[in-house]
Specification:
mainly alpha, 5 helices, 83 residues
């Protein structure tokens, strides 16, 4: 069986990161800046790749995204990822 990162999607949260970022009225660079204030360094280009599901996300990054976007980790995870 192939590992999940061998597929076309490398994370389960990209669509929802983009959704909640836009709902908060944040640009990708602004989200990057807020993550940096937490000590989590994700550049604007990496946020773009995360939103396009072309980059994996660490647990620390997942936690920081949830805090900055003021949502739960469960809100970020796409429940239909495996369908």
């Amino acid at each position: 069986m192939a590992r999940i990162i061998d597929g076309s999607k490398m994370n389960m949260i990209g669509k929802n990161i983009k959704k909640y970022r836009k709902l908060k009225g944040l640009k990708q660079q602004e989200l990057s800046n807020q993550l940096e204030l937490m000590g989590v360094y994700v550049c604007r280009g990496s946020i773009s790749r995360i939103e396009d599901c072309q980059r994996t996300v660490t647990d620390i990054e997942l936690y920081a995204f949830a805090k900055v976007l003021n949502v739960s980790i469960d809100d970020l995870i796409d429940p239909n990822f495996f369908e």
